[in-house]
Amino acid sequence: MNAEAPVILQIKNLTKKFAAEGGKMLTACDNVTLNAYAGQTLGIIGESGCGKSTLVRTILQIHPASGGEVIFDGQDILKLRGEAARQNRRKIQMVFQDPAAAFNPKMKVKEIVCEPLLNFGLIKKSEVDTKAAELLRMVELPEDFKDRYPHNMSGGQRQRLGIARALSLEPKIVVCDEATSALDVSVQEKICELLVRLQKEKGITYLFICHDLGLVDLMCHQIAVMYLGNIVEYIGYGRRISTEGMHPYTKALMKSVFKVDFKPGEKIEPLESEIPSPLDLPKGCPFQSRCGQCMEICRSEKPELKEVVPGHFVACHLVNGNF
Predict the structure, then answer these.
(1) Which residues contact 11 (CB under 8 A, 6 or more apart)?
(2) What share of the chain is helix, strand, coil (3-state, %, to 5)?
(3) Which tens digit of pLDDT belongs to each residue from 28-72?
(4) Taking a C-beta distance cutoff of 8 angstroms, is the pair 227, 312 a contact?
(5) From CA 198, how far away is CA 214, in angstroms rounded?
(6) How far apart are the first and last CA of the chain?
(7) Confidence of residue 304 (pLDDT cuts 50, 70, 90)
(8) What structural domains does the chain harbor?
(9) Which of 7, 131, 261, 309 is found 20 to 30 A from 169 (Cα to Cα)?
């Protein structure tokens, strides 16, 4: 989907289903196919419950996949077991939404950031102080923070600590799961600037999950829009979701965003209708019940993700001319 950088991660028809009461199955991710590119950021957006976090947690094997493949370094990492799976985790790390909950409150900062290195035998205990100071400098924290506890730090400082721990193993891919949503706007800006700098310096690929559409538009090279476990739109390199989004769901998301520079007469149009139950999805397009442009074909045939212009894919009968 983008020829400017090599593909580093291929997600092919990835499916994740959860067993529910009454013998039903909840499909959290439905045949998701995406590529992530080396040194770039793939943004994944959508309402709460659309499957964003489940997607990345399935990629990381926190949840076992129900089907599909995840190709990284020439192999399907979903099939790795034992020591091979453990070694693969060095290459794909995660920054969590709530850094306070991600740390052991009884561990000092130096123990937190160096724990992954000790687990993999990459440093000795005698080297912890020196390595911790180096990692703290990398994320622009004072070296003397290494002897603090996480509860003695601000939210922004703890998130920097989370980034330092994720990068301690020098991974190729870092998953940012709502990594800025719990922070003040001014702190968000600093964390995003840090992420961008580290990406340029180290060539890291980010999978960036976020609800802030404006931030995703600025931060990400590619953007995937999810709805009820489906990718309904993929916007490739050099395109902006704010001006070039085509799917009715994408447009509805953009209209529901509060903007500082509102024009006279411009209104916020929130998506107020109810999301269908993921346990009882309608036949056809998953967005049909909330779409003002729904046609008869939308109720009977599920639209496929098709390329409408180079690098831009949309799953919509209206956009693809299937009517």
Answers:
(1) 32, 33, 34, 35, 36, 55, 59, 68, 69, 70
(2) 35, 20, 40
(3) 999 999 999 999 999 999 988 899 999 999 999 999 999 999 999
(4) no
(5) 21
(6) 26
(7) very high
(8) 7-91+171-320 (3.40.50.300), 100-170 (no CATH)
(9) 7
